[in-house]
């Protein structure tokens, strides 16, 4: 978390006091939840300036999660990319290794922060939604660590394609509830999480897994995930004495991306690229809400959504369960409109290629989510000078995805 | 006086509560909704709540979720919904009609567009589940501009601090959601309903209607003794789920039992 006062004209001063990022964000929830959300906001404001809260957060990140995560120069990947680049081109590729965190992704950073808030508010039951299962595993992990009962809502379709994570959650003592409504993926799991929450507001804390949902979630998730960018900034300055030229991160709801980007937003020379999932291609089934959506209201916030002309929400598609969501966090919607961050997209096939490329060149099996970022990195690097630096977020490891990848590659396991 | 206020006033004069009946528009198909709405009126409903189907009805339990899916599965569009409303208005010039649903379909083409269609179709008020007082700007000003009521919800978690904000800009009636939860089977205790209605009525002159979990004539009568209105939804929607296009008969009979219970509730020994 960072609590310095941002300079005037800062890109880091939002949301406003009503939780809006320009026209995006807000608190579009049922009245039943409103008092609780106002309470959460009050409690978060108090926690943010409480040195004891910050100290406990930092301590758990260091000794339980394993932070700081390394900053790694991917020399062989850089060389590989330079083979296809014009002479003198081919930027240096660096990774923030958040896949080395306990539980294997960045999701745990946010879960540590939120469970401390739950404890502070005296809540005794934890619920969460999950797509890839990474956030579900991270939530089940912190619930076990703090001795709280935990219910995870997961789309029935995601349960099928992320079996290892389902078993992990169960080992950690969580109850995994299959959601069979709608497309049976992340969006429907979130609906079910909200339904549980309205019925159990008195004792339940909802740990939302991405930088979306009603205010103050997008803000607090961002703040907890900003440890990624804050560390990376200091590490790179320490190692090479300068800031990166380009930051790249994959976007589902946008939490790992905003966590990397936010501490750099007021560094005008640092460009940023968020990578959405283009699925089968933008003309077909995909999950790129900025590229193919329009502003609307879902799950407590106003943001870009995949939807039809009547405002019915479309089903997203991505090979990566963690990116398979028809919306995006409201701060990204605003950063896109403000022009500060660029957004592009990568297809299932391109992500699979990047997945294999990283395995072979660096001996790292990435999750399918950051494989989207890696694909975009290789595309950008060839046009950039050799002394330029791309810093990408390697936000998850690929153990959970090997079955999906095997199937996509036609390999029988 | 608009139809909503006139309806609550007329019922009050008759010494009874107003019966508010909810169905999801376009369930089982847009062509069937007109007959079902007529059945509600014939059975004795005073106010019709026409649900706008949405892909993600996150405040609804399984019955109404399924109704939303049936409606969307039958291809119901926003245009169909306003056609259903407009046709209803032609057949029933004086029955109050309210649209209920979620923000996204309502604001998709802009709040002004939505408010103007409401006026054209003779819609008297709008209940939006996920636009709380704090986000009123997204829809409230456009509705008020067109004299369409913005009906607000109060819940068991709406504390005294918040109530003034909830009431500010509210019109038509105040909808008291008697359980903290989703629509469906759960029912609140009668004494908690009574206390809540008294608390709300101390703060507003708007009629207070109570809903969520009301299904039997006895429950309806109990609420009718203490509140200005009784809202019934899931129980009707389940009949439609069961009988499909043959639902008008059973729906009319069922509403009749509620209406009878309500009309004698305040005179009968409770
Ligand atoms: C490894 C990994 N990366 C990225 C995401 C996408 O989420 P976000 O955009 O919030 O970082 C997920 C979600 O499950 C994930 O597991």
Automatic annotation (TrEMBL), chain A:
EC number: 4.2.1.20
Signal peptide limits: none
GO-annotated molecular function: tryptophan synthase activity
Pathway: Amino-acid biosynthesis; L-tryptophan biosynthesis; L-tryptophan from chorismate: step 5/5
Domain (Tryptophan synthase beta chain-like PALP) ranges: 67-396
Catalytic reactions of this protein: (1S,2R)-1-C-(indol-3-yl)glycerol 3-phosphate + L-serine = D-glyceraldehyde 3-phosphate + L-tryptophan + H2O
One Pfam entry name: PALP
Necessary cofactors: pyridoxal 5'-phosphate
Modified sites of kind N6-(pyridoxal phosphate)lysine: 107
Alphabetized UniProt keyword annotations: Amino-acid biosynthesis, Aromatic amino acid biosynthesis, Lyase, Pyridoxal phosphate, Tryptophan biosynthesis
Coiled coil: none
Entries under InterPro entries matching the protein: Trp_synth_b_CS, Trp_synth_beta, Trp_synth_beta/beta-like, TrpB-like_PALP, TrpB-like_PALP_sf
GO CC terms in record: cytoplasm
Record text on subunit structure and interactions: Tetramer of two alpha and two beta chains.
Record family assignment: Belongs to the TrpB family.
Role summary: The beta subunit is responsible for the synthesis of L-tryptophan from indole and L-serine.
Identification of the protein by name: Tryptophan synthase beta chain
Species in which this protein is naturally found: Parasphingopyxis lamellibrachiae
From TrEMBL, chain B:
Protein name per UniProt: Tryptophan synthase alpha chain
Catalysed reaction, written as an equation: (1S,2R)-1-C-(indol-3-yl)glycerol 3-phosphate + L-serine = D-glyceraldehyde 3-phosphate + L-tryptophan + H2O
UniProt pathway annotation: Amino-acid biosynthesis; L-tryptophan biosynthesis; L-tryptophan from chorismate: step 5/5
Self-association state and partner proteins as the record states: Tetramer of two alpha and two beta chains.
Enzyme Commission numbers on file: 4.2.1.20
Superkingdom to which the source organism belongs: Bacteria
HAMAP family: Trp_synth_alpha
Entry-linked Gene3D superfamilies: Aldolase class I
One of the record's GO molecular function terms: tryptophan synthase activity
GO cellular component: cytosol
Swiss-Prot/TrEMBL keywords: Amino-acid biosynthesis, Aromatic amino acid biosynthesis, Lyase, Tryptophan biosynthesis
Family under the similarity heading: Belongs to the TrpA family.
Function, in words: The alpha subunit is responsible for the aldol cleavage of indoleglycerol phosphate to indole and glyceraldehyde 3-phosphate.
Residues annotated as catalytic: 49 (proton acceptor), 60 (proton acceptor)
Keyword flag Cytoplasm: no
Gene: trpA
Keyword match Amino-acid biosynthesis: yes
């Amino acid at each position: 978390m960072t609590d310095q006062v941002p300079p005037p004209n800062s890109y880091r001063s939002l949301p406003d006091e009503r939780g809006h990022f320009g026209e995006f964000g807000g608190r579009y929830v049922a009245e039943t939840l409103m008092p609780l959300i106002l309470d959460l906001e009050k409690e978060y404001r108090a926690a943010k300036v409480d040195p004891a809260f910050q100290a406990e957060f930092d301590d758990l990140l260091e000794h339980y999660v394993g932070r700081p995560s390394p900053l790694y120069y991917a020399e062989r990947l850089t060389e590989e990319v330079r083979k296809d680049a014009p002479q003198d081109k081919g930027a240096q590729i660096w990774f923030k290794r958040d896949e080395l965190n306990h539980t294997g992704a960045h999701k745990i950073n946010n879960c540590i922060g939120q469970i401390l808030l739950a404890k502070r508010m005296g809540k005794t039951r934890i619920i969460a939604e999950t797509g890839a299962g990474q956030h579900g595993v991270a939530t089940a992990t912190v619930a076990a660590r703090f001795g709280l009962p935990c219910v995870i809502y997961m789309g029935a379709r995601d349960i099928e394609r992320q079996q290892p994570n389902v078993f992990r959650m169960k080992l950690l003592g969580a109850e995994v509830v299959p959601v069979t409504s709608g497309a049976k993926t992340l969006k429907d799991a979130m609906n079910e999480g909200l339904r549980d929450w309205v019925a159990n507001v008195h004792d339940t804390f909802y740990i939302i897994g991405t930088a979306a949902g009603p205010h103050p979630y997008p803000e607090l998730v961002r703040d907890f995930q900003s440890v990624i960018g804050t560390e990376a900034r200091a590490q790179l300055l320490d190692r090479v004495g300068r800031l990166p030229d380009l930051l790249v991160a994959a976007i589902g709801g946008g939490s790992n991306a905003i966590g990397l980007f936010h501490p750099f937003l007021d560094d005008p020379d640092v460009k940023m690229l968020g990578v959405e999932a283009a699925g089968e291609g933008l003309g077909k089934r995909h999950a790129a809400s900025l590229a193919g959506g329009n502003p609307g209201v879902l799950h407590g916030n106003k943001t870009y959504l995949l939807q039809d002309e009547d405002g019915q929400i479309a089903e997203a598609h991505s090979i990566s369960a963690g990116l398979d969501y028809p919306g995006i966090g409201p701060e990204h919607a605003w950063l896109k409109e403000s022009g500060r961050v660029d957004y592009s997209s990568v297809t299932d096939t391109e992500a699979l290629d990047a997945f294999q490329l990283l395995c072979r060149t660096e001996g790292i099996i990435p999750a399918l989510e950051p494989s989207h970022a890696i694909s975009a990195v290789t595309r950008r690097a060839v046009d950039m000078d050799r002394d330029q630096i791309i810093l990408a977020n390697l936000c998850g490891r690929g153990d959970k995805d090997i079955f999906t990848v095997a199937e996509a590659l036609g390999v029988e396991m | 006086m608009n139809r909503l206020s006139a309806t609550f006033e007329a019922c009050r004069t008759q010494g009874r509560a107003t019966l508010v009946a909810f169905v999801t528009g376009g369930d089982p198909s847009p062509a069937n909704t007109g007959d079902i709405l007529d059945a509600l009126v014939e059975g004795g409903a005073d106010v019709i709540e026409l649900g706008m189907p949405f892909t993600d009805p996150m405040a609804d339990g399984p019955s109404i979720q399924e109704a939303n899916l049936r409606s969307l599965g039958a291809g119901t569009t926003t245009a169909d919904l306003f056609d259903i409303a407009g046709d209803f208005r032609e057949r029933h010039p004086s029955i109050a009609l309210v649209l209920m649903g979620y923000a996204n379909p309502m604001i998709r083409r802009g709040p002004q567009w939505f408010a103007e269609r409401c006026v054209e179709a003779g819609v008297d008020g709008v209940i939006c589940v996920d636009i709380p007082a704090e986000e009123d700007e997204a829809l409230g000003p456009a509705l008020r501009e067109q004299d369409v009521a913005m009906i607000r919800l109060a819940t068991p978690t709406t504390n005294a601090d918040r109530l003034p904000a909830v009431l500010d800009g509210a019109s038509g009636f105040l909808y008291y959601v008697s359980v903290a939860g989703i629509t469906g089977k759960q029912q609140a205790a009668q004494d908690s309903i009574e206390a809540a209605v008294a608390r709300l009525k101390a703060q507003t002159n708007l009629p207070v209607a109570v809903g969520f979990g009301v299904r039997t004539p006895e429950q309806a009568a109990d609420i009718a003794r203490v509140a200005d209105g009784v809202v019934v939804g899931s129980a009707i929607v389940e009949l439609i789920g069961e009988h499909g296009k043959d639902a008008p008969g059973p729906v009319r009979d069922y509403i009749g039992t509620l209406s009878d219970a309500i009309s004698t509730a305040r005179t009968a020994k409770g």
